[in-house]
Amino acid sequence: MSSNGPDRRAVLGGAAATAAGIALAGCGGSDGGGKKPVARRKGEKITLTFWSWVPGIEKPVALWNRTHPDVRIALEKVSAVNGAQYAKMHAAVKAGNPPDLAQIEYPVVPSFLLDDALLDLGPYGAARVRRRFEGWQWQQSVFGGGVFAIPQASGPMGLYLRRDLFDRWDVETPETWDDYERAAKAVRKKGAWIETFAPANGNRFAGYAWQAGARWFRTRDDTWAVHIDDEPTRRVADYWESLVRQKLIKTIPDRQNAWYKDIQTGTMASWLGASWGDALLVGNAPDTAGKWRVAPLPQWKKGGHASANWGGSTTSVFKATAYPQDAMDFAVWLNTDPASMKLLIAGGYGWPSATRGWTGADLEGQRAFFGGQNYSEVFAAAGRAVDTSWQWGPAVDTLYQRLGDAFTAALDDRTSFRSVLTTVQRQTLADLKDKGLKVENG
Questions:
Q1: Fewer CB atoms inside 10 A, N or C side of the chain?
Q2: Would you list the DSSP string of 111-127?
């Protein structure tokens, strides 16, 4: 066991009656590469390593380094393509040399707890800062009474669309998913595409399921109930399979070279994205400035207001750090200091988890790109409409890989998208059993 705190058996053992309603039980456990934690002496200069992929993260780190000369943050940018950042982090934990801190998305925090890799921040003052953050996002990293990350941002979803093209082609902004299919047909008749179904993007598919009312993970006593193939998710899978089979949408990866070219040229007329997507569009399609707008997600029921979250990250402290208090202090500062948040917002890191220190105007730095629209209002409403009872389970990074592999195979073999859900349901149950967890079909 590491001297940094209890091992994962104690942290994750057995209980659904935790603050987050989570039942995580494992056996064994690494020591997380632990070093003996020490308190920094007054005037002592140290360096903490920090891995992140947030656009523009260099600027707040540089600000910290200028204003906190005794505690230098050494930033390493890591690739977020197809989960590469997490593979690297897990490998570093296994090798006993993880960074002091890292950006880890909410769904993936439990995977690192299974590695016994994250520090419980409770002993370092987490309770004193809890009320600075949105309650449901804070709870995403609370397990067994421990606090294992500081919230950074969420990603309420919306529909980015080329207003000029929709108007030119007389295509109405879709309010429902039925409307969206009609819009896809109209856009296709003009030689363009409304979207792509990116098979490897399990994160976005989870957002679609979330909005539809799915519940992939629940807890019953000390057991995980898994239901990847529940009825709302089947409805989502059937819908997107229908669009694919009708050849109304592409099936290329999103946020890669071919997709960026389609966005730049108008070949792709819209994108179902998250709040952090504004900076992505601005940075990769500058010649389309003024032509984009943001609309709410299409709804399954006319007049509905259901939304979902795509992404959302924490700043996590690894159990291996020798300076836990300093690492915790940086994580809190990064995500609550007004000057830091302004820089993060400008870089496009998402919707702030902090409840104060920013305004809606701060989130509209790209307003001209969106034709003067107060587009933050769309995402603010989406954030309020997110079902905060959604619960992530363990090994979600593996689940995303499973979904990507299965959807890719289904497209190649022309098998049904429902078969993807059946396959991934079976694989997820097996994956969690292999980790020593109690699981059952949901």
A1: N
A2: HHHHTT-B---GGGTHH
Distances (CA, A) of 88 to 10, 188, 385, 428: 26, 40, 34, 22
**Bridge partners of 220?**
223
Rg for the chain (alpha carbons), in Å?
22
Nearest residue to 216 via CA among 421, 435, 433: 421
User: Which candidate, 181, 224, 229, 171, places its Cα nearest to that of 205?
Assistant: 229
DSSP string covering 245-299, please? HTT-SB-SPTTSHHHHHHHHHTSB-EEEEETTHHHHHHHH-GGGTT-EEEEPPPB
pTM above 0.70, yes or no: yes
The answer to whether 338 and 354 are in contact (CB under 8 A) is no
8 A C-beta contact, residue 24 and residue 306: no
CA distance 329 to 150: 10
CA atoms of 250 and 102, how far apart (whole Å): 34
The predicted model gives 226-247 an average pLDDT of 98
Render pLDDT for 402-438 as a digit per residue (tens, 0 to 9). 999 999 999 999 999 999 999 999 999 999 999 999 9
How far apart are the C-alpha atoms of 195 and 259, rounded to whole Å? Answer: 10
Lowest-pLDDT range, 277-286, 358-367, 425-434? 358-367
In this structure, are residues 340 and 64 in contact, taking their beta carbons and an 8 Å threshold?
yes
Give the sign of the dihedral formed by CA 423, CA 140, CA 225, CA 88: positive
